[in-house]
Design brief:
single chain, alpha/beta, TIM Barrel, Oligo-1,6-glucosidase, domain 2, Immunoglobulin-like, 8-stranded parallel β-sheet, 4-stranded antiparallel β-sheet, binds alpha-D-glucopyranose
Length: about 500
């Protein structure tokens, strides 16, 4: 038995397009990431998740894959991928790659073949259906990005299904050939040495077989568990690899069905990101998460931000207050058993950028007119120097906004008070504590607007994390004398048997 490294791993999401550009084309790339890996090591992450770098027409930022076994030349090459992987491993970082099994790009040779020849076996790799008698789409499903989930193929007279953009036709997972193909793709990357996969849209591969009207009801189906069992068998035939699913559901009991010994090791817990900055709401989310995900074969994940969500500093109110609350929430979640999934830039306290309409790239914007997700995808500011901020020497694919002047790596490394310095302290403290911490979480009595969790240490002490969500200080009673291990804001005042936690902040104590 190998150690389940993923159980408490801190995973850092590298949004490949926006991390570091080595060749001046304004788009991040694998060589840029390789050069910046020491930054991620210094931050204190255990693993990285790389968003898609496969050949793609980039209609959905690379989540429209045209070849699952190669690297888009804009990002590098397979040789460059191998170098990145070797460097990461040499630094002790594990690497998850993104895999997109729900749909391909419409430019994928499989789909081109399916379109070109309706009699070809490839046709059954996708979801083609005839119109209703009045010529309208087969059902009323809506694309996640807006508009109908069906696009008409005039040549054949059929529609094809796409839960996302029309350039992302859905695969037909009721076809065994699709299963076999993806198992082979998994092996391709596992043989290269990747440590695991982040599975895109892991809940929606199977649709209601009758394709009944009623949006989305048919998407989260038990049949998909067979796929995760098959994938798990492949994963388990290698050493020490892991699967984490993007199960975009808010019903934690349901998300819990996707994980376990014969399914995925982990699934993203989006309920955490949905939780407002409120003590009762956090208590409820955390309690439920621990109930569902603390069990053999899986472990909880703690997700505040990613490349699809509004950055949490903004969700929590924005400005210095939003950043302060973000630090408090992060410190609370880092104290719990399980894996925090961090999103690049949150460690700088980045807020959602305001991307002007003419610069937007997200298909959501084009399909629905909603602002879309570009604001959380703007490039990493590495230095204080405009216009490229150390990210690129060329025109960045999405523009920087004013916050890059002050919230950047160079400026924050130089300040003890910065969010980056706080993340480094927190992750270092967590790593040092982890071996001594038991997994069970208890809930000492606490003021209503505080969240206080406690874990026993093997040395017979306890580790307490106390978040005060109120706008003024709160006194939390302790069972003994305490030593402060970390604070997300001003240093708390510790008395015999109590601690005064500053407003909107979290403290870690050894009691
Ligand atoms: C996932 C990705 C998102 C993408 C979508 C379609 O939700 O995280 O960025 O647009 O799947 O692939």
């Amino acid at each position: 038995m190998t150690r389940a490294w993923w159980r408490d791993a801190v995973v850092y999401e590298v949004y490949v397009r926006s991390f570091a550009d080595s060749d001046g084309d304004g788009l991040g790339d694998l060589a840029g990431i390789r050069e910046r890996l020491p930054y991620i090591v210094d931050l204190g992450a255990d693993a990285i998740w790389l968003t898609p770098f496969y050949p793609s027409p980039m209609r959905d930022a690379g989540y429209d894959v045209a070849d699952y076994r190669d690297v888009d030349p804009r990002f590098g090459s397979l040789a460059e991928f191998d170098r990145l992987l070797a460097t990461a491993h040499g630094l002790g970082l594990r690497v998850f790659v993104d895999i997109v099994p729900n749909h391909t790009s419409s430019e994928h040779p499989w789909f081109r073949e399916a379109l070109a020849d309706p009699a070809s076996p490839r046709r059954h790799w996708y979801m083609f259906r005839p119109p209703r008698p009045d010529g309208s789409p087969p059902n009323d499903w809506k694309s996640v990005f807006g508009g109908s989930a069906w696009t008409f193929d005039a040549a054949s007279g059929d529609y094809y299904l796409h839960l996302f953009d029309s350039s992302q036709p859905d695969l037909n997972w009721r076809n065994p050939a699709v299963h076999a193909e993806f198992l082979s793709i998994l092996r391709f990357w596992l043989d290269r040495g990747v440590d695991g996969f982040r599975i895109d849209v892991a809940h929606a591969l199977y649709k209601d077989p009758k394709l009944r009207d009623g949006d989305q009801h048919g998407w989260d189906r038990d049949e998909v568990f067979d796929v995760w069992r098959e994938w798990r068998e492949v994963i388990d035939s290698y050493d020490d690899r892991s699967l984490v699913g993007e199960v975009f559901l808010y019903d934690m009991d349901r998300v819990g069905k996707y994980v376990g010994r014969t399914r995925l090791q982990q699934a993203f817990n989006f309920s955490v990101a949905k939780t407002p900055f409120d003590a009762a709401a956090f208590r409820a989310t955390i309690r439920k998460s621990l109930e569902v995900f603390v069990r053999p074969g899986t472990s909880p994940t703690w997700v505040l931000s990613n490349h699809d969500l509004i950055r949490h500093a903004t969700r929590y109110g924005g400005g210095e207050r939003g950043v302060r609350r973000g630090r408090a929430a992060t410190a609370l979640l880092l104290a719990l058993p399980g894996s925090p999934y961090l999103y690049q830039g949150e460690e700088l306290g980045l807020e959602q950028s305001d991307v002007p309409p003419e610069a937007r790239q997200d298909p959501t914007w084009f399909r629905s007119g909603e602002v879309g997700r570009d604001g959380c995808r703007t490039p990493m500011p590495w230095t204080s120097t405009a216009p490229g901020y150390g990210f690129t020497t060329g025109p960045p694919w999405l523009p920087f906004d004013a916050q890059a002047k002050t919230r950047n790596v160079e400026a924050e490394v130089a300040s003890e008070e910065s969010t980056l310095s706080f993340y480094r302290r927190a992750l270092a403290a967590r790593r040092a504590l982890l071996p001594s911490l038991r997994r069970e979480v208890s809930w000492p009595a606490a003021p209503d607007d505080c969240v206080v969790v406690s874990r026993a240490t093997r040395a017979g002490r306890s580790f307490v994390a106390a978040m005060n969500a109120a706008g003024s200080a709160r006194v939390v009673q302790l069972t003994g004398s305490a030593e402060v291990l970390l604070s997300s804001a001003e240093r708390p005042v510790v008395d015999a048997g109590s601690v005064t936690v500053p407003p909107e902040s979290t403290v870690w104590l050894r009691v």
